[in-house]
């Protein structure tokens, strides 16, 4: 378990079908992966109807846990990939994590990289 406060959760909420693009962009920027969840939007851009029937706007929520030192690069990559700076495309935010558990593989990979870079 890590309780050093050096991890953040990046949450990206986008239109259905864009989750894979978010994961690709975050991996390109250094993230190890992500989790895609499905949801339903209720914002101002979702209040549309066809023939008087309300359309249920489907969303994808991508959760990415990463080291805080590379979070800005990942945010920039995601924003560019799915154009989050344009209205109605989605929203993203980060949450600092106090404790992280269940990612022992990640710590092993970090340790291996550290040992290789130090010449051990």
UniProtKB/TrEMBL annotation:
<protein>
    <submittedName>
        <fullName>Nitrogen regulatory protein P-II</fullName>
    </submittedName>
</protein>
<dbReference type="InterPro" id="IPR002187">
    <property type="entry name" value="N-reg_PII"/>
</dbReference>
<dbReference type="InterPro" id="IPR015867">
    <property type="entry name" value="N-reg_PII/ATP_PRibTrfase_C"/>
</dbReference>
<dbReference type="Pfam" id="PF00543">
    <property type="entry name" value="P-II"/>
</dbReference>
<dbReference type="GO" id="GO:0030234">
    <property type="term" value="F:enzyme regulator activity"/>
</dbReference>
<dbReference type="InterPro" id="IPR011322">
    <property type="entry name" value="N-reg_PII-like_a/b"/>
</dbReference>
<dbReference type="GO" id="GO:0006808">
    <property type="term" value="P:regulation of nitrogen utilization"/>
</dbReference>
